[in-house]
Structures are given as C-alpha cells and as structure tokens.
Design brief:
Two copies of one chain form a homodimer. Chain A is mainly alpha-helical. The first copy, chain A, has six helices and two strands, in the order ααααββαα. A two-stranded antiparallel sheet of chain A has the order 1-2. Chain A binds a DNA duplex (30 and 30 nucleotides) through residues 35, 37, 52-54, 62-70, 72-73, 88-92.
Chain lengths: 143, 143
Amino acid sequence: MSEAKVMINELLVDIFNRILAIESEELKQGGVKLSMNEVHVLEAVQVVAEPSMTFIAAKLGITVGSLTTAVNTLVQKGYVTRYRFPEDRRKVLIKLEDKALEVLDIHREYHEKMIDAIFEDLKVDEDLVLVQSLSKVASYFKK
Amino acid sequence: MSEAKVMINELLVDIFNRILAIESEELKQGGVKLSMNEVHVLEAVQVVAEPSMTFIAAKLGITVGSLTTAVNTLVQKGYVTRYRFPEDRRKVLIKLEDKALEVLDIHREYHEKMIDAIFEDLKVDEDLVLVQSLSKVASYFKK
DNA sequence: TCGAATATTTTGAAATTCAAACAATAATAT
DNA sequence: ATATTATTGTTTGAATTTCAAAATATTCGA
C-alpha cells in the first residue's frame, strides 16, 4: 500500500473506534439519558423515507428483531410511538415524539460542529473532492 | 448547513452504520469464526505502540474491564497470550499468536480493497485533499 | 380461496458493555 | 524506610444489545 493509503486506512479505523465513545460523552453532557444506540435509532427514523421496521433496521445494519427490542424501550420511555401503516397493515411505522426531536436537535448540533471542523480551511473545489471521495466509500459499502 | 455539509454528514452516518455488518459478512466468507469485536481487538493489539490493556482499550474507545473479558475469550481460543511487562509489572501486555496473524491478514486484504475502491479515479492532488480532510476529522475526535 | 411471500414480534441464548469494588505494583512524600 | 497515593488490571453484578429461529399477522398471486 502507498503511504497515502496506509494513512487513510489508519484514519478511518481511528475515527470509527473513537466516534461512538465521544458522541456518547457529548450527549451525556447535553443531559440526554439515552444510549448512543437508542439515539441512532431515532436518527434513522428521522432520515429514512418510510419509517417501517425493515427500512430502519436496514439503515442501521441490524436485524429487525434487534430493532424491535430497541423500539420497545424507546416506546416505554415515551420517545416514539408505533402505528400500523393503513395501506399495508403488515408494516409498523415509527413516529418520533417531541421528546425525541429535542434529543435529535442536540445530536444534530454536535454533528454540525464536527462537519464544520472538517470544512474549516477547505476551499470550495476541495469540498467537492471530499464529497466525491466519501461517496465512493459509501457506495462501496452499499453494494 | 450547506448542501455539501449535509451530504458529508449523511455519508459519514451511512458509512458508520453499514461498515460493521459488512466487515462481519466479509470475514464470515473468509472462514473466520471471530466476531468483529474480537477482530478489532486483534487489530488494535497490532497497531498500538505498547500493547498494554490500558492502551489497547483507549485505542478502541472501551473500558479496560470490557477489554479484559474480550481478551479472556481470545486467550481461551488461542489467538493471543498475556504476559507481564518486566519493566513495570503492573502492566499486562498482549501478544498475537500465529492464528491471530492469519485472521489479520484476511482483514487487511479487505481494508486494502476498500481503500483501493476509494482511490480509484482519484488523482494525486485529490488524494492529498482526502488525506487532509480525514486528518481533520480524526484530530477532531482525538481532542 | 389457498399457498407463498412479506413484515414484525417473540423467544431463548450468547456477546458486549459498564461502573464500582478489589488486588497488585510503582511512585512519591514524609 | 514506610506510609500514602497513583497506576494498572481483574472481578463482580447487572444491564444492554445482539442474533437466529419460531411464531403470528397481513398481503399478494395463481
């Protein structure tokens, strides 16, 4: 591997290893009582086009069974509610309650700070390269 | 947030959510019986300067107690051994056995394929931008 | 309508995690 | 030297998270 490749690899591994612990710490300081796992479920519900169990689980890379238990506790804590999708009553859709939206606001602020740190000092055409590079990583993981 | 920032954010979240499941699948197909967690422990042992429990746990972003249980099973399965560091007998250092090195070879191949996919079609000066951008993300997470 | 396919929950068990208590060794201060 | 404090790691006890497989409900297609 070339020097740049070795570096990219180490950086990705490092970021991956640290990100969860640090996000978790940030949330705790923001007064949020949920685990990172639970917050990521909320985030996926918000982002996914149709928030059914199957789609949310796919977005998170976990099984639907795992998601069921996660949603159980979130429902119990009052962050989300379940409802049947009228057009296809097999599907269970998840709705975010106000409590969840507050948490997601705090989490989004953290993400924005992170992204700003990345973009600091980058020029416009460099932004483009970064977006394209990350697109490649993402599509590599999707196929 | 600008459009580029929104995209970067979504890409990072996507990559993060998928990477574990896919790495795990790749390993299974390579005939490796270990979980991704266990493989990441081996990886950290290999990378860290002095493979003591504290340093390895810090590299992984988990508590030393959690690492102890992970190392217990890896010792039991014959992938690593523990030994006391003579210069400071409080420290327990971890040594990779041949079995572990084989697994890490398979895992490294996967990482190389991933990195190659990223670098495909990128030009040299674009490589530099990517490295610098990721360095920023990494240093953001370290401070 | 009947059987296959899809969507989700339940079940049972294993893996992973943490915080706090405990034990051993080293460093510092008195 | 010896007591105190700090560092390093393991153990404990409990909670969380995960999965695969079985069970249930609904929809779709023949």
